[in-house]
Amino acid sequence: MQHRILFQSLLICVITVCLSFPLQKSIDAKSIKDEVYSRVDETELRSKRATKNPGFFRTLFSVIYEQWNDTKNTFGTVNQLINDNFLPENEPVTETTTPNSNPNVTTTEAPYRITRTELNKILRRNLRGLQRLFQIELQDALKQSDQNYIEFRKNASREISKFL
After folding, report:
1. How many whole angstroms separate alpha carbon 49 and alpha carbon 73?
2. DSSP 8-state assignment for residue 86
3. 159, containing H or E segment
4. Could you report the per-residue pLDDT of 47-104, keeping only the tens digit for each?
5. Are residues 86 and 119 in contact, defined by beta-carbon separation less than 8 angstroms?
6. Count of CB atoms within 10 A of residue 159's CB?
7. For a Cys staple, 114 with which of 18, 34, 118, 143, CB 3.0–4.6 Å?
């Protein structure tokens, strides 16, 4: 049994050596080519080393400037999109209603646009309603809090009186 394991190990070693020699020769041929290419790479590296990389502060300030510039451009674009959706204040709103003679024909109308004053009126009305709702909810919560406090005192006095 021991001789069999020894023989198998020896056979595996011999096969490995026989297969590794041709691979080693091909690797040596590749390494010669790699040396030639590495010499070319060294000259390229020298030329790359001659150019300086930007320093820490230059990189930092360039990133900050790019971020600021992108933010400014984005804000301008969003501002322009919002301004395009409002009608001018002095332009009168004209509504035309003409009946269609042909019911099969559909027409598309421009989207409804409002002025800034109309938007402010709507926002103020909504905010007043939210404020009123908040006040109602707050008063209900305070009343419930008072009731909870009274019930707590009753329960606490009952529980303490058991031990006295």
Report:
1. 36
2. B
3. helix 116-163
4. 666 667 778 888 999 999 999 999 999 999 999 988 888 888 776 555 555 666 666 7
5. yes
6. 9
7. 118
Calpha distance 143→137 (Å, rounded) = 10
Q: Are 107 and 77 in contact (CB under 8 A)?
A: no
DSSP state of 95: -
CA distance 41 to 45: 6
At 105-164, the pLDDT tens digits run 666 676 778 888 898 999 999 999 999 999 999 999 999 999 999 999 999 999 999 887
Q: What is the pLDDT of residues 37-50, one digit of tens each?
A: 566 556 666 666 66
| Cβ-based neighbour number of residue 41 at 10 Å | 11
| Residue 71 token pair | 């933010």
Kindly provide the residue ranges of all beta strands, DSSP E only, lying in 34-121, ordered along the sequence. Answer: none
Query: What does the alpha-carbon distance between residue 86 and residue 106 come to, in Å, rounded to a whole number?
Result: 26
Query: Residue 20 carries which side chain, given as an amino acid letter?
Result: S
Q: Are 115 and 89 in contact (CB under 8 A)?
A: yes
The pTM of this model reads 0.39
Predicted confidence at residue 68, as pLDDT, reads: 95
